[in-house]
Structures are given as structure tokens and as C-alpha cells.
Amino acid sequence: MDDQLSSECIYNLLPQPEEPPRHRLKYYSKQRKMVQEEWERKKSSYKTMGLPKVEPPCPRHHLLKHSKEPKLPDRQPYKVPVDGIKSSIPTDMPLMGLHTKKNFVEANIAEVKMSVPKKPVPIYVDTKRGNRNLLEPSGLLPTLLHRKGYGKIPDYIIKRTEEEKKAQEEYDAYVKERIRQGSMKLLSEEERNNVLMGLKQNWEELNHSFQGLSILIDTVSKQNHKEKLETKMKKLEQDIDLIERHKFIYIPQH
Fold it and tell me: What value does the mean pLDDT take over residues 84-91?
């Protein structure tokens, strides 16, 4: 109610003085004074435009064409040194009035007849357009047949064979000595065959059990049983291969 009465006051019709607008406070850096002093000393007046006190180039000495190209020294006449150089022109006068009875035509004919004809260079053509290549370095000729040591056993193979033979002889002597002492026994052919047949029979039994496994391996016990069969069969295969590769087998005696 009071607000309405105050708004209807006659004094409100009088013009009211406007308050000046309030400006925001400006930020002034602490280094402002120092920057102004440095600017007044003109320390950075030549950063972009060069030094202020530079003598301008003279317009008479402008850049000319080919002025930057290197200049060669002036050509001097060449003089041949006299000392230490012999002249290629003979100074002795030839003997005059001498004649020879040699017939150069017949001599040339005889030289051509007696000369060995030059052998043509062997080549081969590998394209239909006649591309020719040398035959000797191509590898198509059996040049290795004409080597000095062709068909002979190399020295390193002979040396290796002798070393293997010597090692085998030493091993045989060691085995005979151990057999003589009674610490080793040579397995007979019958015993070897019996052992081999027993190993193969065991492998057949394991293989029969392995073939009888179920197709679906869905439990841990089935998986473990399959792995055990595979391990045993692999061990038997290694033993069978070892006995078949070695004819003489020695076993220790305890």
C-alpha cells in the first residue's frame, strides 16, 4: 500500500540525477613499471627490422647479372719445359739409298696361312629375338668335369671317416674290456627278438585300448586316461625304434 502511494507521489515526476556508471577494477601488473623502463631504453627496437643504424646500400652498386658466379683465372699460354723431357721426333738422319729384296705380299700371305685361326666365342640364344649370352659362365657346360680333383673324395671326408673309425674301434675295445671284466653282457639275437616282440605286443594292447576310447572326451578322468595311454605308447615306440636301429645291445650286470 505504501509502495503504491509512494509511486503516485508528485515528486516522482521531477527528473532525477543519474548516477555515473561504475567501472570494473583494472588489473595492473607489478612489472608494469619495469616494462615501461625497458621499452623507453629501446632494447627491442631491432628485433624484427634489423639494426636501426645501418648504412643503406649505394644504388650505383646494384646486383649485376652473373656477378655471383665463380671467376676463373685468366688463361696463360702453355709452355713446355725443356729440362728433363726428350723429344719424340728423331734427330738422327736416316740412311738413304737402302733397298730390301723382301716381298711383303708373299710374306703376308705366308703369315696368314701359318697363323692359327681364332676360335669363335661360344654363345647361346635364350629368346626368339636372338638375345645372345656367353655360354661358359652360364653354367650350361659341364666345366666341373675337367677339374683337377674331380671324382676324388675330399680330404675332410677322409679325415672324418678315419676319426669315426678310430672312435668305433676305441668303443669296441672298451666294450670288450667291460665284458671281460663281467660288468656288461651282450644281448643274444634270441633275447633281442624276444624283447622286441614283447614291446610290440604291449604296444598292440595299448593301441587296442586307445582305439576303444569314446569319441566324446567330456570328463577329466577320460582325458587323464587318454593322456596316460598316449604317453605309454610313445615310450614304447621309442624303445622299439632304439632296439631295431642297434643290432648289438649290451646290458649291465649287477
Answer: 62
> Any idea which residue has 729440362 for its cell?
83
Compute the Cα dihedral for 152, 154, 159, 160 and give only its sign.
negative
Separation CA 126–CA 135 (nearest Å): 11
Give the whole-angstrom CA distance, residue 196 versus residue 240.
6
| 116 φ/ψ sector (left φ>0, alpha ψ -120 to 50, else beta) | beta
DSSP string, the chain: -HHHHHHT-GGGGSPPPPPPPPPPPPP--TTHHHHHHHHHTTTTTTTTT--SS-PPPPTTSPPPTTTTSPPPPPP-------TT---SS--SPPPPS------HHHHHHHHHHHSPPPPPPPEEE-STT--EEESGGGT-S-GGGGSTTTTSPPHHHHHHHHHHHHHHHHHHHHHHHHHHHTSEEEPPHHHHHHHHHHHHHHHHHHHHHHHTS-S---SHHHHHHHHHHHHHHHHHHHHHHHHHH-S--EEE--
Most confident of 32-41, 81-90, 181-190, 196-205: 196-205
Q: What is the pTM of this model?
A: 0.35
| Pair type for strands 250-252 and 184-186 | antiparallel
pLDDT digit string (tens) for 68-86? 888 888 888 877 666 656 6
